[in-house]
Amino acid sequence: FSPGLLVVAGSFAAFRLLNLGLERLVPPPPSARRNRWKWRNIWTSLAHSALPDTHSLSPCRFYLHPEMSNDLVGTHPPGAHSLVAVSVGYFIEDFVDMLCNQKLHQSWELLFHHSVVIICFGIAVLLHQYVGFALVALLVEINSIFLHLRQILLMANLVHTTCYRLNSLINLGTYVVFRIATLAWMTRWLFLNRQNVPPATYAVGTVGMAIMTPMNIILFYRLLRSDFLK
What we know:
The protein is mainly α. The chain has one domain (3-229). Helix content is 77%, strand content 0%. It is built from nine helices and no strands. It has helices at residues 3-25, 36-50, 58-64, 80-101, 104-127, 131-137, 140-155, 162-192, 199-229. The mean pLDDT is 88. It comes from Loxia curvirostra. One of its GO terms (biological process) is plasma membrane organization. InterPro entries: TLC-dom, TLCD.
């Protein structure tokens, strides 16, 4: 039994309660009332991405703990393990929310994405190893802020606004830096450290990168085509 599982369970419950109460906190505009669960879902995802400890402090952690740059397997700062466990709880909650409210053919890509993240982060939580590697992966959440804001603006029918245009520019810029570049760095790290990673864990990480990288490149093309090429 790992105490991290308690953090995962607590995180799941907290994000579930937040999801259920968000419609009162942020009432959906008329254009979003036909899809109320999606409105709540996006705001819940934004809440996770915008948590200061989820992403923005990750670069600071590497600055304050430079030893992590050399050892992403066994070295991690205080609180990092709980941070990864909180994210696992969120991804499980989001997985359940989509599974219950959206048709499978509409959500299979995100469900697949969440499954990979839950497995990889779950290994870090259970083994108390690779937490530093998971912290690198959480840099992706910096871009997720603008990705979720884009969805909110779309649902609020605010596409033809300066706010949407500005967010689109920041979204693509942070996408390249914090998604594509981060995944490329993680793939390189796995390749260079394959001798120091157990075969089973290396296989999970390699498969995860092989799945996530093309998915993110395809999503980048969709965003580019939707917001700039039309």
